[in-house]
Write a structure and sequence with these properties.
By secondary structure, this protein is mainly alpha-helical. It has 16 helices and four strands. The longest helix has 33 residues, at 339-371. The protein starts with a helix and ends with a strand.
Length: 424
């Protein structure tokens, strides 16, 4: 009975903590779930007989240390406003480091085969909550108002919700790949796996987020690559094409947000950068969805900022806004809507290269561990790959998205390395 209570309590606080990362103005509730989680871990630690063990230093650990050192050096000596950059670095990167250490510590001290048996469902469940909330909101809106309210959820609009739906799909695609080798990470039948996958696809189509759709198509390509390697069959290729095509078809049924995209981007590329920086929100006469035009403008301004400041402006989520103000634009802009551009503009090309190498090292480590028999290694690959794609198209390399990613990635990374632990 005690084990069952611990299982459901762990599932409750972990899924709740993760789900809340996508909800703005929920700081107090996030803190409550964090305290519940720490209390649960302390309780589990009392019953754990495992000795404290830590992984050997490898490429991932060294790259993370090198990245942290570069951020500290850059913000201290190269930033345009060092005090502001250092304050932002300590506040956010300091929290990120603590969450990474917490994730590693959880596995190091508690992974005895029973204490963390709730963890896979807690990590996945926190994202799947957004799938259920999105579909339930459509049912509710149809019953109350007589029509659907697409691109919305009980937990926020598509911008807040879609990143978590993307993660749910990434985990489920990893799970589908594992089934091809007779393994599984989520303990559920094939029928339930199909149901969860269908609901996640439906939620993705309802939200109709361009970045989420592109990321999913890329994940389908990754699934095809893994499946072909595992099965050496063209049937796996066909399965991936069907999955990607299904999502595209469903999104077109709800409304075409892609019309005029090429024209809008071409128009944006022909406008002077300084003029663009001073008129960030001016969409002019745009064909189709104006977000293509705006994103192209902001991306172009951000890239020019990187060329002018290759060593970065200093840590902070508002590096893009600072550069816009430097060009005489209005104050108030924050992100270029590309985390890659934001992070590079703030922390310099060396900072982004270190971060990118860290991503590559984690994906490589996941593949090595998967080839050695660890199913968590493949989950790590899909999880990191999804975040890399989403951060290219959305400003996810700061704030709760980055901290949440780092926390979960550290847990998955550590779980995949169980056989490599060494006592120090």
């Amino acid at each position: 009975m005690r084990n069952k209570i611990s299982f459901f309590f762990g599932l409750f606080w972990m899924s709740g903590f993760i789900a809340l990362q996508g909800i703005p103005h929920a700081g107090a509730i996030k803190t409550m779930f964090s305290l519940l989680g720490i209390g649960h871990l302390v309780f589990l630690l009392r019953n754990s007989n495992l000795k404290p063990v830590w992984p050997k230093l490898n490429a991932e650990v060294l790259l993370f240390i090198a990245l942290s050192c570069w951020l500290l050096f850059q913000s201290s000596l190269l930033a345009t406003t060092p005090m502001d950059a250092l304050a932002a670095l300590v506040k956010e990167w300091g929290k990120l480091v603590l969450m990474v250490l917490l994730g590693v510590w959880m596995v190091v001290r508690l992974d005895d085969g029973k204490s963390l048996n709730w963890l896979p469902w807690g990590l996945f469940g926190g994202c799947f909550v957004h799938v259920i909330a999105t579909i339930a909101y459509q049912i509710w809106s149809y019953v109350i108002y007589g029509h659907l309210m697409l691109m919305n959820s009980f937990l926020g609009n598509y911008g807040y919700v879609s990143p978590f739906v993307s993660i749910a799909l990434a985990v489920l695609l990893a799970e589908l790949s594992l089934r091809l080798r007779g393994q599984q990470w989520l303990k559920l039948s094939g029928i339930w796996l199909f149901v969860l996958f269908f609901l996640s696809l439906l939620s993705l189509a309802i939200l109709n987020t361009k970045a989420a759709i592109v990321a999913f198509v890329m994940l389908c390509l990754l699934f095809v690559l893994v499946a072909v390697v595992l099965t050496k069959s063209l049937r796996s290729f066909a399965m991936g094409v069907i999955l990607g095509g299904t999502v595209i078809a469903l999104t077109l049924l709800w409304g075409n947000r892609w019309e005029g995209g090429y024209t809008s981007i071409a128009m944006a590329s022909s406008v002077n950068v300084i003029y663009q920086a001073q008129h960030l929100w001016d969409t002019g006469t745009i064909i189709g969805d104006p977000s293509f035009y705006v994103r192209a403008i902001w991306m172009k301004v951000g890239l020019y900022g990187i060329l002018e400041h290759p060593l970065g402006l200093g840590y902070g989520a508002d590096a893009f806004g600072r550069y816009v103000a430097e060009l005489g634009g209005e104050r108030g802009a924050i992100s270029s809507h590309s985390g890659w551009v934001d992070f590079t503009l703030a922390n310099g090309i060396p900072g982004f290269l270190l971060l990118f190498l860290l991503w590559v090292a984690m994906i490589y480590r996941g593949w090595v561990r998967f080839c050695s028999g660890s199913p968590v290694g493949l989950v790590l690959i899909f999880f990191v790959a999804n975040f890399v794609m989403r951060s290219l198209m959305d400003g996810h390399l700061y704030g709760s998205h980055l901290i949440y990613f780092s926390f979960v990635a550290s847990i998955l990374w550590m779980l995949s390395r169980k056989r490599e632990l060494s006592v120090y």
